[in-house]
Amino acid sequence: MSPRSYLFIPGDSDKKLAKADGAGADALILDLEDAVAPANKAAAHGKVAAFLAERPADKRTCALWVRINPLDTSAALADLAAIVAGAPDGIMLPKANGPADVVKLGHYLDALEAGAGLAPGAIGILPVATETAIAPFRLGAYAEAPPPRLSGLTWGAEDLSAAIGASTNLDEDGRWALTFRMVRSMMLLAAHAAGVAAIETLYVDFRDDAGLAASCRAARAEGFSGRIAIHPAQVPVINAAFTPSEEEVAFARRVVQAFADAGDAGTVGLDGKMLDMPHLKQARQVLVAAEVRGAS
Ligand code: COA
Ligand code: MG
Predict the structure, then answer these.
(1) Which residue in 10, 88, 131, 224 has the most C-beta neighbors within 10 A?
(2) Is 232 in the pocket of ligand 1 (CB under 6 A)?
(3) Region label for 170, one of left (φ > 0), alpha (ψ between -120 and 50) or beta (otherwise)
(4) Res. 264 pLDDT band, cuts 50 70 90
(5) How far apart are alpha carbons 125 and 151 in whole angstroms?
(6) Residues 147-177: pLDDT tens digits?
C-alpha cells in the first residue's frame, strides 16, 4: 500500500535527520535538492548515504526516499552516484518534464543498481509532475505508457509559479488559483489512469493542524491517497486523514453486506439511497485500506 505521509528531511541537517525515525511517517524524503544550499550538497551526499547505510532495507521501519536534483542539472548524476548503493526505496524526481525523464532516470538506476548489486528495478520513482510549464501537457502520457518504476505522481505549486512568472499561486479567496487547481486535477486523473498513487502536495503553514486536517480530508475525498509533509507535527495529522475512519469502515461493511444480501443485483437501496457498482467498488477499497492500516 502506498505511503500516506512522506516527510521531507533536509539532507544536510544532522538535527533533523536525527529526528526522522521518530516522526512516524510512512516514508521519509531525504532531500538533496532545494532544502540544501549549494555549498552543503557534498556534505549532504555523505549524510544521506550514511543514513541509508545505517538502515538496511530489511531493517527499515519506514520507506526511505531521496529527492535528487532535476535531471537537466549535472547535480542529478552526482546525487545518484552518492546514494544508490544505500538502496533507497525510491527517488523523488523534481521538475520532471514528462515520462521521458522518468524513463531516463530509470536507465540511470538500471546501471547503478547493477553496479551496487541491488535487485534490478527495486528502486521506485515518484516524479513531481507539474513543476515546469511543459509538464502538465504530458500528464496523460504517464497513463498511455506508464514508465517502469513509476510509483505515483505528485505535484508542486511553488516551482510552477516560478516557472510561469506568477507572483502568487493563490486566488483572492486563498484557494489555489485556476492554473494550479487545473494541474492538480490533471495530475490526479493521470495518476489514476496510470494506476499509481496520487500524492497531494505539501501544506505550507506547518503550525495550522486544523487547516491541514481539513485540506487532507478534502484531498482524500477527491482521490488522493497520501501527502507530502514538511514538519514532523504534520505527520500524525496526515496519517489519520488518509486512514479510513471507524464510521467509514462501518458504512463500507454495510454497503458490501447490502450487495451480498441482494444476491446478483447490480443496484440496491441503503438508508433510502441508491447504490450501484461504483459504490461497491469504493466500499471494497475502504475495507482493503482499513485492513492494511489496521484501522478495522
Ligand atoms: N524533519 C525532521 N525534524 C524536523 C523537521 C523535519 N522536516 N522540521 C523540523 N524539525 C525539528 C526541528 O529541528 C526542531 O527540533 P528541536 O526541537 O530539536 O529544535 C523541531 O522539529 C521543531 O521544529 P520547529 O522549530 O517547529 O521548526 P523549524 O523552524 O526548526 O523548521 C522548517 C521549520 C520549515 C525549516 C523545517 O520544518 C524544515 O526544514 N522542513 C523541511 C523543509 C524541506 O525539506 N523542504 C523541501 C521540500 S519543499
Ligand atoms: Mg521545489
Answers:
(1) 88
(2) yes
(3) beta
(4) confident
(5) 6
(6) 999 999 999 999 999 999 999 999 999 999 9
Ligand 1 atom showing the smallest separation from residue 23 Cα: 2
| 45-55: average pLDDT | 98
Q: Which residues on neighbouring strands pair with residue 93, listed in sequence order?
A: 127
* Same domain (yes/no): 86, 140: yes
70 secondary structure, DSSP code: -
Looking at the structure, do residues 140 and 256 belong to the same domain, yes or no?
no
What digits encode the pLDDT tens for the residues 64-110?
999 999 999 999 999 999 999 999 999 999 999 999 999 999 999 99
Ligand 1 centre and the CA of 10: distance in Å? 8
Same structural domain for residues 204 and 261? no
- The closest of 201, 253, 251 to 222, measured between CA atoms, is 201
> Measured between alpha carbons, how far is residue 151 from residues 2, 164, 180, 185, 222 in Å?
8, 27, 22, 18, 19
Same domain, 173 and 64: yes
pLDDT for the residue 294: 76
Are 257 and 270 in contact by the 8 Å Cβ rule? The answer is no
Phi–psi pair at 263, nearest 5 degrees: 70, -125
258 shares its domain with 226: no
Residue to substitute in 231, 234, 238 for testing ligand 1 pocket (most ligand atoms within 8 angstroms of CB): 231
Instruction: Give the three-state DSSP class for 166.
Output: coil
| Whether the predicted pLDDT of 296 surpasses 60 | no
d(CA 81, CA 185): 35
Question: Does ligand 1 lie within 6 Å of residue 21's CB atom?
Answer: no
Question: Which ligand has the minimum distance to the alpha carbon of residue 155?
Answer: 2
Cell of 97: 518534464
Give the count of domains, the chain.
2
Query: pLDDT digit string (tens) for 249-258?
Result: 999 999 999 9
